[in-house]
Amino acid sequence: MTLRVGIIGAGPSGMAALRAFESARQKGTPMPDIMCFEKQNDWGGQWNSTWRMGLDVHGEPVHSSMYRHLWSNGPKECLEFSDYSFDEHFGRPISSFPPREVLFDYIKGRVEKSDVRKYVQFNTVARHTSWNEESQEFTLSVEDLATGTTTEHVFDKLIVSTGHFSFPNAPEFAGLGGFPGEVLHAHDFRGAERFAGKRLLLIGASYSAEDIGMQAHKMGAASVTFSYRTSPMGFDWPKNTLERPLVSRFDGSTAHFIDGTQGDFDAVVLCTGYQHKYPFLPAELSLKSKNVLYPRNLYKGVVWQQNTNLFYLGAQDQYYTFNMFDAQAWFARDVMTGKIELPPLAEREADIALWCERLAALPDHNAEADFQSDYLRGLIDATDYPPFDLDAVSALFKDWMHHKESDILGYRDMVHRSVVTGTMATRHHTRWLNAMDDSLARYLNGPSQDVDTGSLTTLTRELSAR
Amino acid sequence: MTLRVGIIGAGPSGMAALRAFESARQKGTPMPDIMCFEKQNDWGGQWNSTWRMGLDVHGEPVHSSMYRHLWSNGPKECLEFSDYSFDEHFGRPISSFPPREVLFDYIKGRVEKSDVRKYVQFNTVARHTSWNEESQEFTLSVEDLATGTTTEHVFDKLIVSTGHFSFPNAPEFAGLGGFPGEVLHAHDFRGAERFAGKRLLLIGASYSAEDIGMQAHKMGAASVTFSYRTSPMGFDWPKNTLERPLVSRFDGSTAHFIDGTQGDFDAVVLCTGYQHKYPFLPAELSLKSKNVLYPRNLYKGVVWQQNTNLFYLGAQDQYYTFNMFDAQAWFARDVMTGKIELPPLAEREADIALWCERLAALPDHNAEADFQSDYLRGLIDATDYPPFDLDAVSALFKDWMHHKESDILGYRDMVHRSVVTGTMATRHHTRWLNAMDDSLARYLNGPSQDVDTGSLTTLTRELSAR
User: Fold this and answer.
1) What is the complex's ipTM, to 2 decimals?
2) How many interchain CB pairs under 8 A, A with B?
3) Most buried among A117, B13, B99, B134, using CB within 10 Å?
4) pLDDT value at position B462?
């Protein structure tokens, strides 16, 4: 019987899974019976972002946490598909930090070329999964949100590719209920224009806080204050930006910090991360994890330990993104088809333990990037995913982090070289700080929004002179 | 075997169901095996409101659509339990339009007295329901959100009491994605203080629009504009408040209306209603309905036509609230225990059709109030729920609607007489327009926030002189 594969979610990970099977089919492997379920009306996951927040048009939790004026916060050269380059998609070199719509266009380009859209049922949400130990089958109940009908499907293998940056983690803060201004989680943030002239407090010290804070600065916030739990981000912030330790309580519009300082604010954004949440799975099949580079219970970061018919893609914290989902999808595919034979449970457990031990000992972000490069190397070596120079990408990550430290408002104006094609990125026509139009059309065609195109930051000038 | 009853949701309807069974138990009827599942950490449903919006602490859709400074928008005398009066709870007369916390306290008082909390599993969300025709049993899968465990329970009867004012209906408007200010649905509105000095646009012409608009006026909004689809509300609005027909499109911060007018706004609130949504039910058991006074497919507004083991409480549009949920719960209870015998399907269908025909012919809001009074009469006559003067409540509804037409900012300062105890409400120490503290403590103990306690509106003065 043909293998029956269910894929939940058609974001970058689900698209990678579709592409993985299609790639094998092109090389002569028979295609399994694939059904992919996507609750939105288009694929792209996080990249398919709208103005909606909270609940979507069908009353389902909004998936995307992205927003207007979101530009990639890492070099595109670190996430490039090795089987579909930026050059192939755009037909010309582009800059290293494109906005959302440009990257969305890129990931759609590959799967459109692959003719895999036919496997996806859109507007269809996964509701409930049960595993029958005897028959070794999953029964998945899905609801067509457009027609309001529930159907059940039986699968031999199930891929969970719904991501883990969609369900906010929002701790309680004393007095927050009485804060008179806007209070929202980063997940519900859709644009910083309305913070112009406002005193903004962001609770958190990771990517969301950093980017939303600098968005607010770019849009003219009166002040930006970050509140950290463990340690400050410590970037060379623009003026009117400062870091405070954790909020202890709110009293009206005043936030009190645990170091005894306080401040008055107009709005609060909780940049306090996300939960792993899989409401369509029974608890015993749900990954419970912090956002870490190697979640426990997933062999090779992909295969569910207690039931190797279940696969998670993109379930770890991410330096790499699209290309990592690819490597994982190729690996998962080969496990499903038996091309890769899994070692016994205890051996798999030992392998996970080894990775987790190494993770626990990593001294810094540079080491983390190397760690994930090594992780990808293992997956790619085991499959026919086109290899690329992982050490070069590791070096790219380190350059990028260094640029951020030197110039938090200017690092996106840097250019990097593709490890897939060797193409050097072009300098974008507009500095990130001046770019007030994040559309694909403006990105590709201009005109520039720089008032003085010569006004590069010190770092930009220094590096572009190299 | 003892009857096994599952109750989903411990808001006012679920609490009414618990109370209905407890009331019968006190009169000697054996208690069924009851399990009630509530996803929040306390009961009260809508009344258990926090600062959270979108998704809650566990990543579940936030249930409550209430907000700071929400005062009852109808007289409390229209919703009073006939088996637990306001006098019994507060020990003294109170005003007719109490704030959220006061009404929450009232509904909790009754069930605390009844010792039914033991039946409720909090932090527990219903995930999936299946009906076995052969065994005539429901299997309900629930997830304990605190421990992350999934369990299954089998029931003979299932009560859906999750309400239908929690999942926003939010239509698309062209250009809304580019609106630079805040855009939210009424469900996510938590307080109007931040609209001080702002030009607010509310799309909708029902209770949410009216109340959030007047909240914004109270908190100092620069202007309040309502946009209606069918017809304006037509109240005697304060200055800087106006009504426009539907928005055709947004262009930046400008809204264009279908009559060719336009306006610039700082924030948009979609007061576009709610969806009936029951993600824990298969489509064939889910009520699909607009917000109407008599949804099709529910006999006596309660019993699911195709499976009379399934019950919905509070699924209709509501003039009556708490006391209607009671009457429905008493009725559902007596159907479950066999005390009330159901007529055959076709007869039930004819009964529903009769109500729906009558509904379709109602000329105005006054007639709607009478319609729902008659509906309650039928339920109460069929059960031992303590009867009360429904005609008097109908008259109360009409007075209230008249007061709103005369004085949209002052109707909450009116007082009404209880039909349960005959007690006349007291005038509140602070006019609604001046009340800037909606806490239970301030409500009960004062002091007044009126600057000039003699400054009653024309209507208030006229009516208080009666």
Assistant:
1) 0.93
2) 122
3) B13
4) 52
